[in-house]
């Protein structure tokens, strides 16, 4: 008799679902291997996989170039002897940054402080203070292995009673939240964003979700806001942010502010970003706030280095001590990720040797993302049965698709959600991998998919989407 079976595992683990790397991503990888091994003899109707399922800017095929200054500092910290062996290969400000960090850290092969390198936490606090105009203390900063690690830590601590403690999450939401809640036996309390008003956040919708949760015997512990949104790219107005803070204070909720896309703004004059830290401090609100940021998004796109941070505000000292205890179990976040955070919050300044190149590189990334987003939204909206909000932020579009009844029936016969059935057919026909809206949550009878705006060759890419959609709908009319 086998001692290790699926049924013998923690049931919470079996309940975890993560659509971004689910069935479609697995099948896309199988196709990728087939293309690599068999090439033109693969028998597939496409010659490459287009990974539009995940915000992974530097992934092969998307190929967003890394920021030169960040990589120079990283290289010098990886092998400090380069400062002597190739002094003319690096700008002086990159060398100075590496020397400063090396003086603080020493070898990046050693563990750091469990909360993160003190100097880097000081620099994060300065960045926040300059951004918001309010004090920030390095004691309230925790460096993490990407923002996801911080989210997981906070949710694990907040679920005080399995299957009773709940967290309010926006629908559609980034599947990290439902997956983490399932892992720790917490309850997801959904509140729907308003697609008809550019995926805006409705206070009435949150209040209704709170009321229903309490009627169902669920104890709401926290409210998640993703700003700019994922998958929607929507940005909250300051008036709405103030109402959210008031609601959290009234209902004794911890406010979890996922702000990893704060620099991905395509129309910043019309849709600016304001941090919840600024809003809460401006109000003098007592609401407990934890804000997350990451080097994986923005213009850095350093997903594989696993760097991020969260800041605690209005969090009691004894609770913060429990956070420190828990991060200590993992010893420390990756050092190269921490160095990436330092470069994120301390980029070259005007007058520095690296500034001109840094400015050119970041401006080009912002421009390309804004242009692709606009073009893709326009083209998708021109298709019959497709409507798409022109996202003002983040890295994605989230079009809504109207599917023929015969397609829905075929999906049901195949045991698939209709938008997953559509996405699988898209992958089979074009090699384009997207994430169905059923993985993010949506209203009954509605269908969506999320795709990134990171793919180069956008005309060819969108052309394949258009051709497939017309053929798919014609097939099932």
Poorly predicted ranges: none
Shape: globular
Number of β-strand runs: 14
Cα(first) to Cα(last) distance is: 51 Å
Summarize the structure.
The chain is 44% helix and 12% strand. It has 17 helices and 14 strands.
Question: Could you please describe the fold and organization of this structure?
Answer:
- The protein has helices spanning 11-14, 23-38, 68-78, 82-85, 92-105, 118-132, 147-158, 176-183, 203-215, 238-250, 276-283, 317-329, 335-345, 355-381, 405-413, 418-430, 458-475; strands spanning 50-51, 141-144, 165-171, 187-192, 219-226, 254-258, 289-294, 308-313, 386-387, 396-397, 400-401, 432-433, 435-436, 449-452.
- The model has no long low-confidence stretch (mean pLDDT 90).
- Helix content is 44%, strand content 12%.
- By secondary structure, it is an alpha/beta fold.
- It contains 17 helices and 14 strands.
- The strands form 4 sheets. It has a 7-stranded mixed β-sheet, with helices on both faces. The protein has a 3-stranded antiparallel β-sheet with strand order 10-14-13. Strands 1-12 form a two-stranded parallel ribbon.
- The chain is globular, with a radius of gyration of 23 Å.
Sum up the structure in keywords.
seven-stranded mixed beta sheet, single chain, 477 residues, three-stranded antiparallel beta sheet, 17 helices, alpha/beta
Question: SSE layout and pairings?
Answer:
Blueprint (H helix, E strand, L loop, with lengths): L10 H4 L8 H16 L11 E2 L16 H11 L3 H4 L6 H14 L12 H15 L8 E4 L2 H12 L6 E7 L4 H8 L3 E6 L10 H13 L3 E8 L11 H13 L3 E5 L17 H8 L5 E6 L13 E6 L3 H13 L5 H11 L9 H27 L4 E2 L8 E2 L2 E2 L3 H9 L4 H13 L1 E2 L1 E2 L12 E4 L5 H18 L2
Parallel strand pairs: 1-12, 3-4, 3-5, 5-6, 6-7
Antiparallel strand pairs: 2-8, 7-8, 9-11, 10-14, 13-14
């Amino acid at each position: 008799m086998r001692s290790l079976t699926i049924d013998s595992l923690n049931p919470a683990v079996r309940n975890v679902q993560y659509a971004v790397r689910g069935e479609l991503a697995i099948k896309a990888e199988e196709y990728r291997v087939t293309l690599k091994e068999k090439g033109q003899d693969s028998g597939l109707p496409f010659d490459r996989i287009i990974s539009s399922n995940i915000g992974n800017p530097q992934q092969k095929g998307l190929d967003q170039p890394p920021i030169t200054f960040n990589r120079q500092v990283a290289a010098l910290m990886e092998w400090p002897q380069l400062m002597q062996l190739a002094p003319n290969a690096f700008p002086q400000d990159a060398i100075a940054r590496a020397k400063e960090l090396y003086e603080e850290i020493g070898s990046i092969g050693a563990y750091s402080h469990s909360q993160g390198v003190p100097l880097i936490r000081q620099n994060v606090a300065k960045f926040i203070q300059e951004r918001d105009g309010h004090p920030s203390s390095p004691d309230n900063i925790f460096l993490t292995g990407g923002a996801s690690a911080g989210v997981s830590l906070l949710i694990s601590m907040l679920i005080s009673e399995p299957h009773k403690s709940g967290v309010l999450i926006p629908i559609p939401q980034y599947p990290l939240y439902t997956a983490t809640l399932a892992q720790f036996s917490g309850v997801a309390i959904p509140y729907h964003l308003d697609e008809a008003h550019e995926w805006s956040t409705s206070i009435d919708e949150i209040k209704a979700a709170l009321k229903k949760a309490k009627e169902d015997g669920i104890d709401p512990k926290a409210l998640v806001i993703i700003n700019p949104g994922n998958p929607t790219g929507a940005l909250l107005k300051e008036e709405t942010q103030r109402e959210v803070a008031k609601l959290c204070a009234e209902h004794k909720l911890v406010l979890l502010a996922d702000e990893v896309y704060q620099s991905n703004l395509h129309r910043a004059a019309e849709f600016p970003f304001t941090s919840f830290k600024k809003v809460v401090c401006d109000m003098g609100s007592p609401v407990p706030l934890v804000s997350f940021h990451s080097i994986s998004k923005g213009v850095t796109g350093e997903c594989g280095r696993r760097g991020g941070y969260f800041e605690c505000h209005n969090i009691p000292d004894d609770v913060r001590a429990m956070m420190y205890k828990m991060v200590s179990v993992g010893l420390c976040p990756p050092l190269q990720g921490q160095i990436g955070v330092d470069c994120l919050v301390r980029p070259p300044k005007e007058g520095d040797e690296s500034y001109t190149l840094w400015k050119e590189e970041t401006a080009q990334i912002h421009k390309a993302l804004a242009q692709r987003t606009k073009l893709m939204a326009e083209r998708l909206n021109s298709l019959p049965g497709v409507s798409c909000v022109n996202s003002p932020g983040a890295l994605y579009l989230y079009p809504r698709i109207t599917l023929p009844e015969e397609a829905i029936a075929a999906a049901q016969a195949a045991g698939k959600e209709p938008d997953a059935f559509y996405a699988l057919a898209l992958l089979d026909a074009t090699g384009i991998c997207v994430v169905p809206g059923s993985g993010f949550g949506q209203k009954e009878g509605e269908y969506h998919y999320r795709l990134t705006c990171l793919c180069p060759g956008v005309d060819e890419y969108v052309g394949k989407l258009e051709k497939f959609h017309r053929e798919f709908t014609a097939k099932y009319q």
